[in-house]
Amino acid sequence: MTTSSCYTCDREAEVDALPPREVIAIDEHWRVAHAFDAALPGWLVLLPRRHVTAIAELTDAEAAVLGTWQVRLSRALHAVTGCAKTYVLQYAEAPGLGAPGFGHVHFHVVPRAADLPQELRGPRVFGFLEREPISPEQMDAFALRLREALGEHAAR
Questions:
Q1: Alpha carbons 21 and 117: distance in angstroms, whole number
Q2: CA dist., res. 80 & res. 32, Å (int)
Q3: Inter-residue contact 154 to 147 (CB < 8 Å)
Q4: The total number of structural domains that make up the chain
Q5: Alpha-carbon distance 33 to 146, whole Å?
Q6: Within 10 A of 27 (CB to CB), how many other CB atoms are there?
Q7: pLDDT per position as a tens digit, 9-57
Q8: Contact between residue 140 and residue 24 where contact means Cβ atoms under 8 Å apart
Q9: pLDDT tens digit string along 44-100?
Q10: d(CA 34, CA 42)
Q11: Separation CA 40–CA 51 (nearest Å)
């Protein structure tokens, strides 16, 4: 796999130079980033640090901490946003299905506010990806607040 064919692997190759929005939290197996094209502050993406295109390809070690990360991020999102719940979604394909460079497994962890309109609930939450995204500066500011909520689990 050449790095030019996978957006996530390209980011991983330069992980030490990435801004806060790209490395909110990290461990041996997973990296947490803010979704770059979301209009919703706190739309997170949980990414395996090695190239994986299907959940069945996860190692036992990666799988063992996956649920822990999903719960940990959900708790931190609740603390920072006051969301009623979080959605956890996984497709390993970009919107439009099959967009080049986005076949890497990734889990969306999305804060769902109590007052979110019905037309944006459930899978329709992806409507936030069709709106004007928040700015990189807003993502970085949110990332720093989330790092604080994550405490010892945040990127340093």
A1: 26
A2: 16
A3: yes
A4: 1
A5: 11
A6: 13
A7: 898 999 999 999 999 999 999 999 999 889 999 999 999 999 999 999 9
A8: no
A9: 999 999 999 999 999 999 999 999 999 999 999 999 999 999 999 998 766 554 455
A10: 7
A11: 27
What is the four-CA torsion angle of 132, 30, 16, 148, rounded to 10 degrees? 70
Amino acid at 142: F
* Cβ burial, residue 156 (10 Å; 0-12/13-18/19+): exposed
Task: Kindly report each contact of residues 112-115 with a partner whose C-beta sits within 8 Å and lies 24 or more positions away, as own/partner.
Answer: 112/83, 112/84, 112/85, 112/86, 112/87, 113/81, 113/82, 113/83, 113/84, 114/83, 114/84
| Residue 139 domain boundaries | 3-153
In CATH, what number is assigned to the domain containing residue 19?
Answer: 3.30.428.10
Q: Name 143's Cβ contacts closer than 8 Å, sequence gap at least 6.
A: 19, 20, 21, 24, 34
